[in-house]
Write a structure and sequence with these properties.
Urease, subunit C, domain 1; 22% helix; alpha/beta; eight-stranded antiparallel barrel; 5 domains; TIM Barrel; 36 strands
């Protein structure tokens, strides 16, 4: 009996071991390759900070078996000698929509707004779709995968970039040779969020940033209430949200201020978002650091502006010019302030543009090791997949790059990108680096040929004495084709040759302008070759760096060179308008300390105070504007007839130039009220106007709370194209107030 049980156990284990081979095979006899591959004599970066010289990387069936100096190589091993070459982990892009079709926008036209949800059994708002799974809309895109691999990427996190709650994404290896079962490492990796509505729904609410923030808070409150069993009906959206609540949560904020808004919501509900920033974090770096969040940062630096047209130049703002000037320093600012970040191709027009901007960021101070971390170990940590990828430790996926030299140097060529042990050739390793200076002998004349640029895509310059020729060079599979043209006579010389491996010269066929065929010979000048090679290597880190202008507060026109700070001030001999029973006081001193009026009187003194001679000047209390609509990113949330849940405090805009202008007019405090788009608007924000302070610094602490109620034509949509929202009459407005306040009363007791 025991023998039978043991035999059954062995059979079960054997079945499990070969369970991946259950597919029928109709493509002939295939050998199951179980060989090892060893890459020897390489400079191996197991991780960005773990460099091993003259090392070996051993892989088998898509995984790393061993890496290091003393790796035992099994007998059934294919050995690849990489002497002089470098191996790095492949890059990870933690925020893409790779292979996920963009949803089609719903046409709005002139139809009436949609106030209710279009779905049954889901959340009451169409823009909340946590039940959505990107895997259901995914198609592997070989062309896009190749473009990503060519820039060093081997793995992407992708999702549907649509809606406020966007559902789960998936982790995809960029392996053209595999199948979906092999490529898709995780089909529900993270939950995704943003402040942007879905393009697939016309539902009006939310119609503002503050509405989106209020809606997200409501979703979390409702999920908590639902989880306790307080909602009798089934909600598939809330079910999905709760099911995935322990997954990584990624929030596309998109700019420095929205980063802080997303972090605030996360802190309120105990969610540590990975925040997708906007590349402008350097402008609020201390506030960014204070969120204690990890960031996914796009590289999409502005191109130089064409200011040759004076009319067009007059429309270019100082803010835009500063962004062009300062944006390349963003990764360095994050690095210097110890803000954890990964880099993403998101916002880059194509992967090549990302690589170009990455080299620019390095040029402006981003450390190369930090850059590699931001593309390997950091995204792996953030996505909680460090056990699978990010480095070349034993047991991890064999995702690695083979390069001709150190990464992020202009002279370095990316040769191969291996994904899950599958080889992709980017630039063949067999091709000889021909960059250097040559004496080109052709038709009895000795030309100077200088080949520079990238090893895989070199460029040529041909001269004869003081004469420059227009040259065009192509180089592939060790075949070189060079043509050069006399700019004055337009005579064209055409040459072609095969380059022998590691050769110092080459000989080939030439066709003269007359059509006569002949031969040519190019001998490398070794004294100048090293100088050209060194010049190419240094291109990424040297050259003309533009002067970076200092940050101002705010970083727009009229900004201050330093942030506002409290000072002890003593105003002497002013005419003081007290607005109290004391009336107007002549030749009076006022001491301001710790942000408040400390003393009023004559002959005052205070150690350390800055004295201001106010003789002949009048000093009054600042003007208070009780009803203002300045300094807010959105004023109306008109998607519902009552939007009491929104607050202007969420959308204070400290960069609004109207703060500066109001201060110039004597206004020191304002109440920003919600607009009059609906009968019950949102809550207000009461600000102290301090030009250069951030949004939180403008809000009065423990200020009274107010809410906007409105009457008149707007609230009943008298002049709107749509007449679909209740109320439509003044009677209806009154009834809405009565009903809402009656329903509210039990909660106020």
């Amino acid at each position: 009996m025991k023998k039978n049980i043991l035999l059954l156990l062995v059979l079960c284990i054997s079945h499990i071991g070969i369970s991946q081979e259950y597919f029928p095979k109709n493509d002939g006899v295939k050998e199951n390759n179980a060989q090892y591959t060893a890459f020897t004599n390489a400079t191996l970066f197991v991780s960005p900070t773990n460099k091993i010289n003259n090392a070996t990387l051993l892989i088998k069936q898509g995984k790393v078996i061993a890496s290091g100096k003393n790796v035992a190589i099994p007998s059934n091993t294919v050995v690849v000698d990489l002497e002089g070459k470098f191996i790095y982990p492949s890059f990870i892009d933690s925020y893409t929509n790779f292979g996920v079709k963009n949803p089609e926008r719903t046409s709005g036209g002139r139809r009436s707004p949609q106030y209710g949800a279009s779905r049954d059994g889901f959340y009451w708002n169409d823009h909340i779709m946590p039940e959505k799974n990107a895997i259901d809309h995914f198609t592997y895109d070989s062309k896009a995968a190749k473009a990503m691999r060519n820039e060093g990427f081997g793995l992407v996190n992708t999702h549907s970039m649509d809606g406020i709650a966007r559902g789960t994404g998936l982790l995809v290896a960029l392996n053209d040779q595999g199948n979906q079962a092999m490529r898709i490492i995780d089909d529900a990796l993270a939950q995704h969020y943003s402040f942007s509505k879905s393009v697939t729904s016309r539902q009006s609410y939310p119609g503002s940033l503050m509405g989106a923030m209020a809606l997200l808070r409501q979703v979390y409150h409702d999920a908590h209430w639902y989880e306790k069993g307080n909602i009798p009906t089934k909600d598939r959206s809330l079910e999905a949200l709760l099911k995935n609540k322990n997954k990584v949560s990624i929030f596309e904020a998109g700019n420095k201020s929205n980063n802080l808004r997303a972090a605030k919501i996360g802190n309120q509900f105990g969610i540590n978002y990975l925040i997708v920033g906007g590349g402008d974090e350097y402008e609020m770096i201390q506030q960014t650091k204070a969120t204690n969040a990890s960031y996914i940062i796009p590289l999409n630096f502005p191109d130089p502006y064409d200011v040759s047209n004076p009319y067009m130049a007059s429309y270019l703002s100082l803010e835009d010019m500063r962004a062009w000037n300062q944006a390349p320093t963003n990764p360095k600012a994050l690095q210097d302030n110890a803000v954890p970040f990964a880099l993403t191709t998101f916002k880059s027009k194509k992967p090549k543009d990302f690589t170009k901007d990455l080299l620019v960021a390095i040029k402006y101070g981003l450390d190369k090791t930090k850059a590699l971390e931001a593309l390997t170990t950091e995204p792996a940590r953030m996505l909680q997949i460090s056990d699978k990828v990010g480095s070349l430790d034993n047991g991890k996926y064999a995702n690695f790059l083979i390069t001709s030299g150190p990464l992020f140097e202009k002279g370095t060529t990316l040769h191969e990108n291996w994904v899950q042990g599958t080889r992709s050739v980017i630039n063949t390793m067999d091709q000889t680096d021909i960059r250097g200076s040559y004496n080109l002998a052709l038709a009895g004349l000795s030309y100077t040929l200088e080949i520079s640029g990238e090893a895989a895509k070199p460029k040529a310059k041909v001269t004869l004495g003081e004469t420059d020729f227009s040259a065009k060079l192509t180089y592939k599979d060790n075949w070189i084709t060079l043509s050069f043209t006399d700019k004055e006579s337009n005579d064209v010389y055409r040459t072609t040759a095969i380059i022998e491996k590691n050769t110092m010269s080459f000989t080939g066929k030439a066709v003269l302008p007359s059509g006569v065929e002949t031969t040519f010979n190019a001998n490398r000048n070794m004294g100048e070759a090293k100088a050209i090679s060194d010049k190419n290597k240094d291109t990424a880190t040297k050259g003309a760096l533009r002067e970076i202008m200092p940050i101002t507060y705010p970083n727009v026109g009229l900004g201050n060179t330093t942030q506002p700070r409290e000072q002890t001030l003593l105003f002497k001999n002013a005419t003081v308008w007290t607005s109290e029973a004391e009336g107007i006081l002549k030749n009076t001193d006022v001491l301001v300390k710790d942000g408040k009026i400390s003393k009023i009187g004559k002959n005052l003194s205070s150690k350390g105070a800055i004295e201001i001679d106010a003789t002949g000047k009048h000093l009054t209390a600042g003007i208070i504007d009780e009803h203002s609509h300045i300094a807010a990113l959105s004023i109306n949330e008109g998607g519902q007839n009552s939007s009491a849940e929104v607050t202007i405090e969420d959308v204070v805009d400290p960069e609004d130039v109207n703060i500066y202008r109001n201060l110039a007019g004597g206004v020191t405090s304002i109440q920003i009220l919600h607009g009059s788009a609906n009968p019950i608007g949102g809550r207000s924000a009461i600000l102290k106007l301090k030009w250069g302070e951030d949004a939180d610094g403008l809000l009065y602490d423990n200020s009274p709370k107010f809410i906007k109620f409105a009457l008149g034509e707007n609230v009943k949509q008298s002049n709107w194209e749509s007449y679909s929202r209740f109320p439509q009459t003044r009677m209806g407005v009154e009834q809405l107030y009565v009903t809402t306040l009656t329903e509210l009363k039990p909660t106020m007791n």
